[in-house]
Fold this protein.
Amino acid sequence: MDSQKKVLLVEKDNAIWHFVRSILKKEVYDLDFADDAKYALTKIQNNTTDLILFDCNSLGVNMSEFISLIRNSTDNIPGIIALTKNINDDADCTQPAVDDLITKPLNSTELQYRISRVFERRNMIDLLNKDRADSEALLQISEAVSSTLSSREILHIIVKKVASLFDATRCSIFRVAHEEKSAQVIASHDNPDIELEITVDNYPEVKKALETGEMVIVQYILLDPLMKDVHENIQSLKNNAIVVIPIILKDNVIGTLFLRSVRDNKFFNEREIKFLKVVARIAANALDNAFLYENLESTRLQLVQSERLRALGELATGVAHNFNNLLSGILGHTQMLLSKDIDASIRERLQIVEKLVLDGGEIVRRIQEFTRLRTTKDFSAVNLKDIINDVVRMTELKWSGGHNTSKIVLRVDANQMEIPIVDGNATELREVFINILFNAVDAMPNGGELRIRTETNGKNVFVYFIDTGEGMSEETRKRVFDPFFTTKGSKGTGLGMSVAYGIINRHNGQISIDSELGIGTTVTVQLPVSEKVIKEIECNYGLRREERARILLIEDHKITLDVLAENLVNLGYYVQKVESGMAGIKIFKGGNYDIVITDVGLCDISGWTVSKKIKEISSHVPVVFITGWGNQLSSSQLKECGVDYVLTKPFKIEEISAIIKKAIDSKKDV
């Protein structure tokens, strides 16, 4: 039977062989016998062996040599248990290559336990090796996926790797809208360029996965009731099993990972299913990035085209004005001559001139209509931190050293300051930021650093792109926003920054550049805070813009930090988040803050030290402790360290709001 374990006993004593055979169950173990190492090696070479039991004195060679011969005889190294009368006499039997050592005389219970323990240990090692192989495969898939932003290439890489791991007869990815009856095969392991539409009803296992959002496994393809309606089409697949994993993106099923493999009555096991689920998640994330990039590229081309039209429109507007003046003069004189009593042949000629002039005017009007700028604004609430995160993720291949470019160190400081919402078009703003980022990377051909930083003054949000690149001359800086101006030769269109300028202008914002040759460039994008947000805050909390306090919030527990900061922003305050005491003190020195809120137990220095330092820098700025210690804090120590208010965790947002207002009012009285 295939489930039996193959055991080889190397022992000269027939009594031992009969003893071992009597205690090992036939339904579990298939026992074979050899009386020396040479005979044993012949059996190992000709048959699969799972375990070798050998007497150290029966080999005819030393044990190290015997084990070496085993390793050279088979790729599938069996378990090894040595039998000896005296451990001290057979010290060689204790070497690491031996899984276990049993002293004679043999005990039946002990022998069965030791053998089962060796198999359990080796099974565990096999599982670990398989897990390692799975991890290596997932790493290879992830690395391959990150090497391209083409969705077709990404998906083909995934299905090809999965097919090789599972020895699949078919591995594909289907993409489908949930309400549609057809699906597109967008990747297949054996065809990188596949374009195929299928009817979902012909694939009941796929249909079920799409409808339920759950994995579907068909272990016996001809016996499973799910497949009864398609039996005629699958007769040739009788030894195949199928697994279908839904690909889910943002809670929506957008497709499936389909795997069909000859299993020979072996079920898909838990490890394999877990692996396929991870692959499906990788596919979903890869698709998300790829689709974002492809949509962005499509939008970029549209924006470039519209900017070309804008430039043409500006040209046409200037030309049309002068040209229409010329046409008006010609038309006026022609019609004046036509009003007189003139020769018929001359009248005919003048009428032709009149018609040509009118046609010329119509052509100018058509050019003006064709190049007319879009004036409507399709704006919604936009979080610039989300835009920045999207841009960093979508352009990773550009700045991380892909596409034969030097690696750029990218630092994003956008998460430190909570910034208000702006009104805008997210797609257009992504395009602006990508143009700026690409220009920065291109300016650092030998590598460098790009820093993205955000801040707000209450009325506007500022996004800074600071690079350590080649910089630009003053003449170049002045022409950056001119249509068709480029320093990249044939590689550039000269429209990237003019597009960016037009977009930011339509958003009622500003874009400016500071640069120095050999030092680097800073591009600043300024956008107004959403008027709706400002009005809501003023309405709900009665705060005028000039009354909104700037808060420095110091907390080393990130979840608490993020939640509290968001609540304070919603109350109308400007919040700077910091995760350590030393960093908080440094930021306080360089900023203008109205109040400091700090935890007592920080990761580097205590809140007591923070409060002392804050008061040394600016004694009139209130300090608020948030702590789990509550009333256990010493009032004398609080006074000595300059702590003005204490709030015990957990607390309601109304409580901290009241303390902040009280602190600000007390500051005004100073």
